[in-house]
Amino acid sequence: MKILENALSLDLFELCREELSSKLTSNVWRSSTIVLDRSLRQGISGSTLNAHTSLDIKNAIKKEISPHVPECEIDTQYNVWQPNSGISLHSDIGYKFGATIYLNDEWHADAGGWFIWLNSTTGEWNTVFPTKNLMVVNDMQEKHLVTSVSADTPYLRYTLQIWGRE
To answer: Is residue 37 very low, low, confident or very high in pLDDT (cuts 50, 70, 90)?
Structure first.
């Protein structure tokens, strides 16, 4: 697992947040309850919403993250992690890599939404706290999960998800 602080330039980071914000009231969202395999929702009672980024944003993201990920075509989407949402243990099999960039300015430790992975080299479990503009890259198909977001969180958790196609 690779961890990269300040993954996107400030300009692109703000463009992503503006685009996500503009989509929040649009009819473009899909629910994880419908689109994710049941195995990815095991033990998760909430739903994550996702919507594709624009092509311009996708291309800009690809350009900026290219030094840190394998060369390939990518898919990009915004995720809105609602109360009780999360994702069960999985490994992103079928992709060259999976990546998350955190879009919230701040996040509270008690609000859940922690990224946890099993280091394939050491066999140890590791944790990442959702931090503004931090990117987590899984290019070794390591098993990982996101803990459920608290039922009473006062705000939603926003991420940018990126997958490299085989």
So the answer is: confident
